[in-house]
Amino acid sequence: MADIESTTDTAAPGAEAKKKRKTVVGEVVSDKMDKTISVRVVRIEKHRTYHKFMQRKTIYKAHDEEGQAGLGDMVRIEEVRPLSKTKRWSLIEIVKKSTKVV
Question: What percent of the chain has pLDDT over 70?
Fold first, then answer.
């Protein structure tokens, strides 16, 4: 039991303090920019008064270093530090490739 306590004491300080970044899944609506994609994220909200469900769409600019995401792909992006005036997200993975012929 003493060796377990010693291993926890030698852990790097601040390792547990690392914050988890936001991630969202959306569809690529534009890939015409260099190293940048536009991703449309759809979320469903309930109206406060009428209690109907509404679709809200937001378009985020995300950094795509290799240019691997194409039009119509479903991608996962995560929040990062500001990379440009409008770019605050980065591509993590391609969830589903598009089958559309462009």
Answer: 81
